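Hi Q.,

Before the meeting this afternoon, I wanted you to have the 4'-phosphopantetheine prediction in hand. No need to reply - just skim if you have a minute. The sequence and ligand are here:
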Amino acid sequence: MKNSIAICPGSFDPVTNGHLDIITRAAKMFDKVIVVVAQNSAKKNCFSPEERVEMIKKCIPDLENVEVVHFDGLLADYAALRGASAIIKGLRAMSDFEYEFQMALANKKLNPNVETLFLSTASQNMYLSSSMVKQIASMNGDISGFVPEVIKQDILDRINSKK
Ligand code: PNS
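Predicted structure with the ligand bound:
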């Protein structure tokens, strides 16, 4: 895909190894990938959008074709604004599917020029989620296998400050 731009949206509260695997694979498929920290109105976030952007940037210093931004409006509008032809989402299990399919259809209706592509999550990340990371950290569990070392302390500091 020449001069192709994809967006990788999510709450990323915080980014996990599962998200980073999807971002890395998308960066190999597209000329440019824009990771969009967006608002999921169903979720109450632990980190500010700016903090989430910074944590993602810290994890991917070597991915030169990846930009990380915060956007507060509709994803379909952001895709149009940036000329993106694809929205990339990771699918962990069938339980993700209904929600993701609904979003893909809504985004297609709002912006017919953008296709949603699903990448299957790597098997070692099938069970992984941001909420699981926060829960394990809040109970003093070891989150080393779930997030990169470079953001581990940021997460622990925030979780501990909330106790
Ligand atoms: O990581 P998440 O929480 O599953 O990501 C969901 C997210 C943030 C991508 C989704 O809620 C979203 O696209 N929010 C932006 C607002 C929007 O476009 N809503 C309509 C989606 S159909």
